[in-house]
Amino acid sequence: MDITTRMDLLLDSGVLSARNYKVVKDVIAHFSRAHGVTLTEENGAGFITHLCIALERTGKGEAVQPLASEVLEESQSEPEYPRARFLVEDIVRFIPELPETEKDYLCVHVGVLLSKLQDS
């Protein structure tokens, strides 16, 4: 499965709206164009899946529990964290309504993505 197939499944199953499908496609293109980060199923599945769900949750006004402080602190101590935070803040132009709690979760996923890119 590739990342687009994952998104298509989320769209077809009603988990992802057509509007948010386009937003996620724009984020994927922006990562590649602006940052040279190509999102694939292997490196970006967790990030993209969480982004899709976060967009839907935000659109419905549903809140997510904040990350446990230990998880947040551990994430912030990782060497990838500053770039992960930068990348997440950069995509806020596409989703300005994204709450800080969702950004924290996305930073964890982007940190994992960046770590996978370094390992490959």
Automatic annotation (TrEMBL):
PRD domain boundaries: 15-120
PROSITE patterns: PRD_2 (PS51372)
InterPro entries with a match to the protein in the record: PRD, PRD_sf
SUPFAM superfamilies listed in its UniProt record: PTS-regulatory domain, PRD
GO biological process, one term: regulation of DNA-templated transcription
Top-rank taxon: Bacteria
Protein name per its UniProtKB record: PRD domain protein
Species annotation: Parasphaerochaeta coccoides (strain ATCC BAA-1237 / DSM 17374 / SPN1)
